[in-house]
């Protein structure tokens, strides 16, 4: 538009409104999909959840067939979905044929409502030539879409899906602020941190409504174990970093309800011991591999040690030294310090204490590292560790595979960098000091004497005491056991949200019956997070330098990706382990594949990455894999046949569009209003919701959408003015009212940003 003397800007993002008289569709009965899991050679767990019309039990029928058309049934039955189990259903058909594909479904109301069809598979027995897995961890619904699940469902043909933990996150708004980029689309259910049974059930329900997760769970059997966020961050046997008994009650009570919800919402078996914490178990894929799923959080884990001591710990040690004349003399002599003359020498005590500060700090760091590497600290505990050793010894399979949560490789960084990170004082000069030698060595450039000294004296220390580096004694026992039994060891890990490939090397010195220090005992493949943010979120632009530092100073690390979300695709054959990391390109729809191969489960060959070509079969603007995210068809451009293609609806879900359901004006307003209610607390600048007796107002990116009692819909557009395209100030508002009765049938209205002079 043309105006005199100033420019006008309409502050609005593209907004679609649809007007029609269709009624709001009711939710389907099986809104959480179907799943299978915990496969054995002759049985498998089948799962679904019924959304009931009322609180009464629901009779649910189930069918299992060798064909997707269910022309003949292998097994069938009826089970009752009840409130005591949150209306989840688990059945375990037995007498199945090994290494066989089955299809399953559920129904209610005499078959009037039928669930989606799931596909599953039993374990093989005897000679087995191949097994293929998709490995996942760390899915946070408010961080990003679950694209990795969608991609795996699109790729398909997996013998099992392996989830090594952080299937849900317990936080409420603000508890993990770095993982809230997608908050406006999903919010938190419940709108607080999970601590009660109802809370954890609601959070599982929210996650399992996602089409991408449903598609993955319906595509292959799930083998899973929790990490910490299924209960609370940095969980250990007696507590968690994110648990406060004073305000959140008993830790044991919280664990009990969290595990109850986990067992209800996943296709898992109850432990034979009756103790739900003891979820460790073995899955044998014929003579090819034994998969041992470990529990590393709740059974026996000791509280994590911190690398850097606190000021209080340093002060306590200095007080201990000063209270002992012998220690005071010892430190004064060893470090050439002037001791105080006595208890009344205040100036001398102050000077001596100040000089002792960095000395004691470094000594406590060394003591902590010693305790991490060789102290009598439990991650698995004696019972589980003995169980694992027995299973490895009894197995005749080619590979012993550990499915577990945290990094097993020795992951280290120069001590100076880690100390600065721990004290929030990291300096770019320190990073450069240790990164420069790594860069030069990688490119064949000679080091200067100072650079060589920095490299030689880096004193790498473990960066993550929550991982196996904090529990070195048990790790060493496992590695030495694998070597002593001459087993090919492969470890799956998660937890860090980044991708890694390690050679697992021993740390024990040479001794009778002990492999020498540095002996390669196996390999580790650590899957990236499904959606949880990685190092790139905390150190933007520094991922490359940090990757090089990890690769240069971690003794067994051969590959690292600190930038991309995705999942791990692994195929085992008798002669090789062939891994492919599927990485989604940041801010895009394309995927990159990074191959890594091992023929002996000791050496790793890092292949060249390749970009994938992502088809869009129905030309609707959504790649085929992304249709699993939106829950739409990859062969029909407008899956719900409401006149708007899938891509347009998916892009406007914040305004109430749903590409799976025909949209009415009422449904859009209802969904948009609820999204505003969910979002307003977290981001008032994005959404501001006002409510009165007959009016609900929703402001989104500068627009104000108003639904009045007379069913008229209006759009309020703020106008700003500026003389130089900067320093904008309010100039007024434009107001447009749409009366639904004036537009018979379905009409769409679009408002775009405009800049006029």
Question: What does this protein structure show overall?
Answer:
This protein starts with 6 loop residues before the first strand and ends with a strand. It is 27% helix and 25% strand. The strands form eight sheets. Strands 11, 12, 13, 25, 26, 27, 28 and 29 form an eight-stranded mixed β-sheet that branches. It is of the alpha+beta class. The radius of gyration is 29 Å and the shape is globular. It folds into four domains: 111 residues, no CATH class; 87 residues, Immunoglobulin-like (Sandwich), CATH 2.60.40.380; 325 residues, 4-Layer Sandwich (Purple Acid Phosphatase, chain A, domain 2), CATH 3.60.21; 64 residues, no CATH class. The N terminus and C terminus are likely disordered. A hairpin with a 6-residue loop joins strand 33 and strand 34.
Task: List key phrases describing it.
alpha+beta; Immunoglobulin-like; 4 domains; eight-stranded mixed β-sheet; seven-stranded antiparallel β-sheet; 36 strands; globular; disordered N terminus
**Taking Cα atoms only, what radius of gyration do you get, to the nearest Å?**
29 Å
Biggest β-sheet description? 8 strands, mixed
- Write the CATH homologous superfamily of the largest domain: Alkaline phosphatase D (PhoD)
Distance between the termini: 6 Å
In terms of per-residue confidence, which ranges show pLDDT below 50 for 5 or more consecutive residues? 1-28, 675-711, 744-757
* Strands, total number: 36
Top-tier CATH class of the largest domain: Alpha Beta
User: How many domain regions?
Assistant: 4
- CATH architecture term of the largest domain: 4-Layer Sandwich
Mean pLDDT: 87
**Remind me, CATH topology of the largest domain?**
Purple Acid Phosphatase, chain A, domain 2
The percent of residues in helical segments reads: 25-40%
């Amino acid at each position: 538009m043309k105006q005199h003397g100033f420019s006008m800007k309409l502050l609005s993002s593209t907004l679609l409104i649809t007007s029609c008289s269709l009624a709001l569709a009711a939710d389907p009965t099986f809104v959480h999909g179907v799943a299978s899991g915990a496969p054995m050679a002759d049985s498998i767990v089948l799962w679904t959840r019924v959304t009931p019309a009322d609180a009464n039990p629901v009779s649910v029928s189930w069918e299992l067939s060798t064909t997707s058309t269910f022309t003949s049934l292998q097994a069938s039955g009826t089970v009752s979905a009840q409130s005591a189990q949150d209306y989840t259903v688990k059945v375990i058909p037995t007498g199945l044929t090994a290494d066989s594909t089955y299809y399953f479904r559920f129904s209610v109301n005499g078959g009037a409502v039928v669930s989606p069809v799931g596909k599953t598979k039993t374990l093989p027995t005897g000679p087995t030539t191949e097994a293929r897995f998709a490995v996942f961890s760390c899915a946070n619904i408010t961080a990003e879409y679950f694209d990795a699940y969608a991609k795996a469902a699109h790729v398909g043909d997996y013998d099992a899906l392996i989830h090594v933990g952080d299937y849900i996150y317990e936080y409420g708004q603000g508890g993990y602020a770095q993982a809230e980029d997608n908050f406006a689309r999903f919010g938190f259910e419940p709108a607080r941190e999970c601590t009660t049974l109802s809370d954890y059930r609601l959070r599982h329900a929210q996650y399992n409504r996602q089409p991408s997760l449903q598609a993955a769970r319906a595509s292959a059997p799930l083998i899973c174990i929790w990490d910490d966020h299924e209960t609370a961050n940095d969980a250990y046997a007696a507590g968690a970093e994110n648990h406060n008994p004073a305000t959140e009650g008993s830790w044991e009570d919280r664990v009990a309800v969290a595990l109850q919800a986990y067992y209800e919402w996943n296709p898992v078996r109850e432990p034979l011991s009756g103790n739900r914490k003891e979820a460790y178990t073995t899955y044998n894929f014929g003579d090819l591999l034994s998969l041992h799923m470990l529990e590393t959080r709740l059974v026996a884990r000791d509280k994590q040690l911190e690398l850097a001591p606190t000021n209080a710990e340093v002060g306590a040690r200095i007080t201990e030294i000063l209270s002992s004349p012998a220690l005071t003399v010892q430190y004064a002599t060893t470090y050439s310090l002037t001791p105080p003359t006595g208890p009344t020498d205040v100036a001398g005590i102050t000077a001596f204490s100040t000089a002792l500060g960095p000395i004691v700090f470094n000594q406590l760091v060394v003591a902590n590292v010693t305790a991490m590497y060789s102290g009598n600290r439990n991650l698995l505990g004696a019972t589980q560790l003995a169980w694992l050793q027995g299973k490895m010894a009894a197995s005749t399979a080619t590979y012993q595979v550990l499915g577990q949560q945290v990094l097993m490789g020795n992951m280290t960084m120069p001590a100076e960098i880690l100390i600065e990170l721990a004290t929030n004082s990291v300096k770019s000069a320190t990073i450069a000091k240790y990164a420069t030698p790594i860069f030069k060595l990688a490119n064949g450039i000679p080091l200067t004497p100072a650079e060589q000294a920095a490299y030689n004296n880096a004193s790498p220390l473990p960066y993550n005491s929550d991982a196996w580096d904090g529990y070195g004694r048990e790790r060493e026992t496992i590695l030495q056991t694998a070597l002593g039994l001459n087993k090919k060891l492969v470890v799956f890990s998660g937890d860090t949200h980044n991708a890694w490939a390690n050679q697992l090397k021993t740390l024990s010195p040479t001794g009778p019956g002990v492999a020498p220090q540095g002996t390669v005992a196996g390999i580790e493949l650590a899957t990236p997070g499904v959606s949880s943010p990685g190092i790139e979120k905390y150190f933007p632009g520094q991922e490359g330098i940090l990757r090089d530092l990890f690769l240069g100073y971690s003794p067994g690390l051969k590959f690292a990706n600190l930038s991309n979300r995705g999942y791990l695709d692994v195929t085992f054959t008798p002669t090789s382990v062939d891994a492919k990391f599927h990485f989604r390109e940041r801010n895009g729809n394309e995927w990159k594949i990074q191959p890594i191969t091992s023929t002996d489960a000791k050496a790793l060959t890092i292949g060249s990455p390749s970009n994938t070509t992502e088809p869009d079969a129905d030309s609707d603007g959504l790649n085929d894999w992304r249709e699993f995210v939106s829950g739409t068809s990859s062969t029909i451009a407008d899956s719900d046949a409401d006149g708007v293609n899938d891509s347009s609806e998916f892009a406007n879900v914040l305004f109430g569009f749903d590409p799976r359901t025909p949209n009415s004006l009422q449904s859009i307003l209802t969904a948009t209003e609820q999204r505003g209610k969910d979002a307003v607390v977290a981001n008032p600048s994005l959404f501001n919701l006002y409510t009165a007796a007959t009016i609900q107002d929703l402001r989104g990116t500068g627009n104000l959408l108003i639904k009045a009692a007379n069913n008229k819909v209006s759009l309020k557009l703020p106008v700003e003015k500026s003389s130089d395209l900067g320093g904008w100030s309010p100039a007024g508002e434009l107001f447009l009212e749409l009366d639904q009765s004036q537009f018979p049938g379905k009409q769409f209205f679009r408002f775009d940003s405009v800049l006029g002079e």
